[in-house]
Amino acid sequence: MSDDGINWVLVNASPDILVQIRATPALQPARAVRDTGIAAVLLMDAQIDHVTGLLMLRERGTPLPLYATAEVLADLSQALPLTRVLGHYCGVEPHTLAIDGQPFSIAPLRDTTFLPVPLSSKAPPYSSHRNDPHPGDNIGLMLHDSASGARVFYAPGLGQMTDAVEAAMRQADVLLVDGTCWSDDEMITLGLSKKTAHMMGHLPQSGPGGMIEVLARMPARRKILIHINNSNPILREDSPERTELATHGIEVAFDGMDITL
Amino acid sequence: MSDDGINWVLVNASPDILVQIRATPALQPARAVRDTGIAAVLLMDAQIDHVTGLLMLRERGTPLPLYATAEVLADLSQALPLTRVLGHYCGVEPHTLAIDGQPFSIAPLRDTTFLPVPLSSKAPPYSSHRNDPHPGDNIGLMLHDSASGARVFYAPGLGQMTDAVEAAMRQADVLLVDGTCWSDDEMITLGLSKKTAHMMGHLPQSGPGGMIEVLARMPARRKILIHINNSNPILREDSPERTELATHGIEVAFDGMDITL
After folding, report:
1. Model's pTM, two decimal places?
2. What residues in B contact A16, CB-CB < 8 Å?
3. What region holds the Metallo-beta-lactamase domain (chains A, B) (predicted)?
């Protein structure tokens, strides 16, 4: 996210962050050698696919501003201690996100406020909270752009709807939400896992109470699925499932997707 | 490395391993969903750029055979506990490499033996051995292919020559060795670090006692620099430094380089 197209806040640090930076000229302001436009990183949870890229940002010259809940920062200093490891390279400047309903801002983004919304999902398999869920293990994020007035709700993990999530989603102009699995038993049917989507902390798209039903009652002008598992048939543009999404006005995110509010 | 082109031993797990697998059809035998041809991983040290990719191999169905010295396995269970984290996914089947001069083999490679050679280099910045070097923090590897009789010496980190390294390099038909820096003060001159190549555990190419001088006395039929830092001018094909390497018969490795013994 960026106000000015130069300084960016990265949400979740994917393992392929270096590939993403190379593919995204806007993230290469080249003000110095080894410069990137990443001014800060904000984490939704401590899942491996959302945090491993932090190790790839270690060559910066100053501590990396890192925004996450106390629960996520604890996982990243203990079970998978990336913040301690980064202490031997650039270092981390941690900012603990409170989940008390107060919005916060991240320098240098002047026009954006962020509101964490606790989610019912799952802590990572390696976390001590895996079978002992705490509020703050997973958050969604409500973004408010004061320049345009637009609101975005972002949630790559979303295990079940709650009143708070329902309320946040109803306010959003743009929804970027969990698209992991089409059906609850998808991973089992394909022999990839013994777990349902729900057991992994994800709301499947199809079926009663699924994401398609949830999105149908939302007034957002854009409804976009993100965080799509490679088992999900919606990745195939000619699939009936993709067609079904289209009839509901639901988009499927792609690498390099750019959203202007 | 592979004997049969189907089962491979991966040496060091780079953070971009998924990109490498996608770019390398030989690593995609597709015997099952989410299959790769990676039968085992062998680590030279515990540097972040050599181990982070282990996290990306976590979706396999069976424990990952992992070959490394006791010192490297200790770093990966403590300071950067990737093996412990992987225990919550596929798990790891650790094989401790002794550095007592005995060769070992790795199933299913039948024609290859491996001999670890302790190197004078550096443990990673995050390691408790960073300022207290132990034999086994870094190894080079002598490979012997019994089918062709050829020997390869591989060492992405190599801080200074020792009698053991000199002897191994003299026996090798192919050398794949540390190409990190052209000059000892390269990182300082470019403002990227306050450390010389030697301080980081790497032998620069140029200058007295440098890698060009070392390689000049070796009978190997191919001399290839690997592990090249993005500050190194040899990455530019039209640089005078690259021309100087060519006059010494020294090659520069590239992504996707394939070597048949």
Report:
1. 0.94
2. 16, 18-19
3. 7-228
